[in-house]
Specification:
Strand content: over 45%
Shape: globular
Distance between the termini: 39 Å
Oligomer: single chain
CATH topology: OB fold (Dihydrolipoamide Acetyltransferase, E2P)
Strand order of the largest sheet: 1-2-3-5-4
Number of helices: 2
Helix content: 10-25%
C-alpha cells in the first residue's frame, strides 16, 4: 500500500492548468524533524521540504479554500517518483500526489480558523514556540 500523510506548514502552492484547461496545484510543504542526523551526533532540529501535486476536484476545493502560506495542513496521498530528461540530463522528481487535505490551522486573515484535532499539531506548535 502506498499512502503518505504529512502535517506541516504550506510553503506555497501554484495554480496551473493543463493544455486542456484542467486545474492542478503544485507546491511545497515544510515539516520539522528532530533527532540525531548521524549516529552518536548531537540532537538537532531541521526542516524537511516535500513537493506535492493536487488534481481534479481536490485541487479546485483547495484553491477555493486558499489556505495561505504558513497555514498548517494535513496532506494525504501517494508517494510518486518521476524521471524525465532535463536540460542537463535525467532528472528524478519525488512528490506526494494528494487525494485529501485538511486545514488544521489557518494563517490570520485567511478566513475562519478550524480547531485542530487534539495532538495533531503539537510538534508544529513546539517548533513555533521555539522560533519566538
Amino acid at each position: 500500500m502506498n499512502q503518505v500523510t504529512l502535517v506541516g506548514r504550506l510553503a506555497y502552492f501554484d495554480r496551473k492548468r493543463t493544455s486542456t484547461g484542467r486545474l492542478y496545484l503544485t507546491g511545497k510543504l515544510v515539516t520539522r524533524d528532530s533527532g540525531q542526523r548521524e549516529p552518536g551526533g548531537p540532537d538537532t532540529e531541521w526542516d524537511e521540504w516535500h513537493r506535492y501535486v493536487v488534481w481534479g476536484t481536490t485541487a479546485e476545493q483547495m484553491a477555493s479554500d486558499d489556505p495561505g502560506r504558513g497555514s498548517i495542513v494535513r496532506l494525504t496521498g501517494r508517494f510518486e517518483t518521476r524521471t524525465f530528461d532535463g536540460d542537463q540530463g535525467p532528472v528524478t522528481l519525488h512528490q506526494v500526489s494528494v487525494r485529501e487535505y485538511e486545514i488544521l490551522n489557518r494563517v490570520p486573515g485567511r478566513g475562519p480558523e478550524p480547531e485542530p484535532p487534539p495532538g495533531a499539531v503539537d510538534h508544529v506548535q513546539r517548533w513555533m514556540a521555539a522560533k519566538r
